[in-house]
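Researcher: Here's a chain I'd like modeled. Treat it as a single chain, no partners, no ligands.
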Amino acid sequence: MDKLREIVNGKLPPRVMRFVKQTGKGINRFDMINDGDSIILGISGGKDSLALALALSLRKKWLPINYKLHAVHIDWREYPLPDESAERLKEFFEILDVPYKIVKAAMFPESFKGSFNCYLCSRNRKRILFDLADEWGYKKIALGHHLDDIVDTTLINLCFRGSFTTMLPVQEFFKGKLEIIRPMCEVPESMVKNITSFLELPVQNINCPFRETNLRASIKPIVRELSHIDNKTRQHIYKAFWKKADNFTDLKSGLNPREK
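Model: Modeled as a single isolated chain. Structure tokens:
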């Protein structure tokens, strides 16, 4: 991780600067991070969560505000992270000077009663992060979803659930006591891939039994085909949802602006 050490301790290469600034656009547009915030970083070990940690740690170096970051990796007992991978992630966060915690948990808890899907897995992960945030007194949880994730979610909900809803950049829970933020909401996946490859970040393969067969994996080729017709397809889909919204404050709390 020599390249990572170089940029943390020196001047950012142009492509890294562009990535960090693009992340900042989403943060500023939706007022995600303010002075004094304490933020849990949800870390899977994949490219997206590592890129998120990089962007937020680098932004701290030149912004006139200060905020606290604490990375949390949920290590599923059924698919544990190999020791070598765990050490590489530990080194990564030491270089970024971000505290890093591994939480062991069951991917298939008894409460699922034998059922399992992407929604239940996501809910399980959020529950663990919510509990930690409550224990530590943190108010925000940052997740590594990017522009493509939001676009994919919009199409999945529209085409398969008959609902024009999406993954929100900022979403309130428990009457505003806690927020999930998605700082890379305006960063395309291609930029994330470019940065993680260029810096040779210690990306870990995520052990997921539905990795190749879920709806998200099925919708991505369709979005790519649409982008061959218009390379701004992703941006158009992303912006379409906000154009319909009357008030983002209502959206943050999960309200439909057409049902106010």
